[in-house]
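Task: sequence design from structure.
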């Protein structure tokens, strides 16, 4: 039917031209021209409406997306800057001939697993880069200025071993001005506190890998004797009991949620993640992470905290050619550009949950006058596959056998190393919001 109609239309038009009906052709041409102008002005009206209502656009951008495609690369993780605004998390690693402000010899706070220089890492190129946001300047961390700023204040990093990794970097930079004195540690040295006497400034690291109450049956090397028992509806008292004592806090979690765990609510088992030998509902780590983060942010929002609270996103690992247990390694010696290294599926899911939950929370925090900020280090960390200890988590791993099979650490960060840039960003956010 359609083909028949098209055939008759074409035949009529050819006939019209052959008969040279000038008046009809002129009228038809005027009609087409009018339609074209109508379409053009309609499009202009739409464009003008968008340009004249920036407040509507801004309000909509504050709301977390209901659904979106998961980011693959660093360029996709962090949105481009809005006009006139600096996005510290969107940038590039650029060469920095000045190198780190401390070394393994000048800082005593570096734990052996992150002390890549002492452990024999032969290359040093990974030390000579700095993070450079694309549309703004990021000054180097100034320890003198910072300590004056936080005099008589308290700072806490709350989370897992990456938070402990970060606090070492933090202390190393500050120790250029004054050596911190350890005033507390728990039995396993996982939670600790230091004092800078001249400034009455304390820095704490609180071990809370889930931010929620959890029974963990795992040794320091990650060997587990039973499933983790995680209470989705109960926050970890190790930090909630001290919450009101801190002026600044950096919360972080994520990596531990992919481990095998039994989930509880109201002290009753409701399911698990990766427990095939048990007759339990597989809820997935994403379900648990979203649930706990929601509870964490609700707790923060229900407070009247007058200080500054950050939520740091999870950092990606860089295992290549396998996982940590199957010969995976991280042998790269320099940063990559945005787009050259992909997030794993797990890291995509973790980051999506974090951005959605912190997005909702920051809007509510702003309405309540609370100072809650996103500290999104995922993209800039993704571009530093060269910054991990690898086999140099251990002291001189190839001293006896150059071909020794060593389990690589492609999750934590060498010190000094890329993680030092986090301090630069934190100071800028504390000073200028």
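Answer:
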């Amino acid at each position: 039917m359609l083909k028949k109609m098209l055939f008759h239309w074409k035949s009529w038009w050819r006939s019209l031209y052959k008969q040279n009906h000038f008046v009809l052709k002129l009228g038809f041409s005027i009609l087409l021209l009018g339609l074209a102008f109508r379409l053009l002005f309609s499009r202009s009206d739409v464009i003008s409406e968008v340009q004249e209502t920036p407040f509507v656009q801004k309000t909509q951008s504050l709301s977390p997306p209901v659904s979106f495609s998961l980011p693959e690369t660093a360029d996709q993780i962090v949105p481009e800057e809005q006009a006139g605004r600096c996005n510290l998390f969107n940038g590039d690693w650029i060469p920095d001939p000045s190198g780190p402000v401390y070394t393994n010899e000048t800082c005593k706070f570096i734990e052996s697993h992150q002390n890549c220089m002492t452990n024999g890492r032969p290359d040093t190129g990974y030390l000579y880069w700095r993070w450079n946001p694309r549309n703004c300047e990021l000054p180097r961390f100034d320890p003198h200025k910072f300590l004056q700023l936080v005099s008589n204040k308290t700072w806490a990093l709350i989370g897992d071993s990456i938070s402990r990794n970060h606090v070492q970097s933090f202390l190393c930079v500050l120790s250029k001005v004054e050596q911190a004195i350890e005033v507390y540690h728990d039995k396993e040295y996982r939670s600790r506190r230091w004092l800078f006497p001249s400034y009455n400034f304390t820095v704490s690291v609180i071990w809370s890998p889930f931010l929620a109450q959890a029974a963990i049956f795992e040794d320091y090397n990650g060997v587990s004797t039973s499933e983790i028992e995680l209470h989705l509806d109960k926050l970890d008292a190790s930090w909630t009991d001290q919450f009101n004592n801190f002026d600044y806090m950096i919360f972080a979690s994520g990596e531990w949620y992919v481990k095998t765990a039994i989930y509880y609510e109201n002290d009753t088992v409701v399911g698990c993640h990766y427990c095939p030998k048990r007759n339990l509902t597989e809820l997935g780590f994403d379900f648990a992470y979203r649930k706990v983060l929601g509870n964490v942010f609700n707790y923060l929002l229900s407070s009247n905290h007058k200080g500054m609270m950050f939520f740091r996103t999870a950092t990606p690992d860089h295992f290549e050619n396998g996982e940590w247990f199957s010969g995976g390694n991280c042998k790269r010696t320099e940063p990559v550009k945005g787009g050259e290294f992909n997030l794993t599926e797990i890291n995509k899911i973790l980051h999506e949950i974090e951005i959605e939950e912190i997005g909702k929370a920051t809007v509510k925090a702003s309405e309540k006058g609370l100072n809650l900020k996103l500290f999104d280090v995922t993209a800039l960390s993704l571009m530093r596959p060269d910054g991990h200890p690898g086999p140099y988590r251990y002291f001189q791993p190839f001293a006896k056998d150059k071909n020794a099979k060593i389990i690589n650490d492609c999750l934590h960060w060498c010190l000094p190393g890329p993680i030092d840039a986090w301090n630069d960003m934190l100071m800028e956010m504390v000073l200028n919001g």
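Residues 235 and 299 are 9 Å apart (CA to CA).
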